[in-house]
Amino acid sequence: xxxxxxxxxxxxxGVVGQKIIQLLEKKNFQVNNFYPLGKSSVGDEVSLMNQxxxxxxxxxxxxxxxNL
Length: 68
Known about the structure:
Layout: E1 6-10, H1 15-26, E2 33-38, E3 45-48, E4 51-54, E5 56-57
Parallel strand pairs: 1-2, 2-5
Antiparallel strand pairs: 3-4
InterPro entries: NAD(P)-bd_dom_sf (IPR036291), Semialdehyde_DH_NAD-bd (IPR000534)
Organism: SAR86 cluster bacterium
Protein name: Aspartate-semialdehyde dehydrogenase
């Protein structure tokens, strides 16, 4: 079984998305690949575990890349 977490987070730059990111960091949740997604925030940046990620368009995202 593959235990690697590939996380897609819709609304990553919003209030709820930022709270989820805070909780992931607080619990030291191990994420293999992180896909922050949005609509109006495409191109903005968010951070998770001291790494910066660019928000991609939720409508163009290939959901098969994520398992959560």
